[in-house]
Amino acid sequence: MEMEMEKWALLQLMYKIINPDISNYVKYGVKVAEIENIVKNVYNKFICNYQDAIEIFKTLTKSNVEEEKFAAFFFLNRFKKKFNEGTIDLFREEYAKHCHTWSHCDSTCVRVI
């Protein structure tokens, strides 16, 4: 019985680490590679500058759909050569307060570094 309780506690902890604590958060299960492909196609189809990318990032990162959050970062990352100290502030001010899952935080932080 005690072992069952320990397993249950561990499962609850794992769930809390992996899943957000907001009730209306959605994950559709779209693979990261597919999101990157969609972002690449949008980037190639439309003419956007770095400021446009920042606005798109701000809008999508506020979404409660995980795939849209990934798309926000992937789109902004297409302008990586334009990153500066202001970009770090952008991540701190916009991204950090809207990063709700381990997978999203871990995946995007690796790309910034």
Into which percentage range does the β-strand content fall?
under 5%
Helix share bin: 55-70%
What class would the helix/strand composition place it in?
A: mainly alpha
Q: Characterize the largest beta sheet: strand count, sense, and whether it forms a barrel.
A: none
InterPro entries: ARM-type_fold, DNA_alkylation
Descriptive notes:
The structure is a single chain. By secondary structure, this protein is an all-alpha fold. The chain is built from six helices and no strands. Helix 2 packs across helix 4, helix 3 packs antiparallel against helix 4 and helix 4 packs parallel to helix 6 (102-112). The longest helix has 17 residues, at 2-18. The protein is elongated and about 60 Å long.
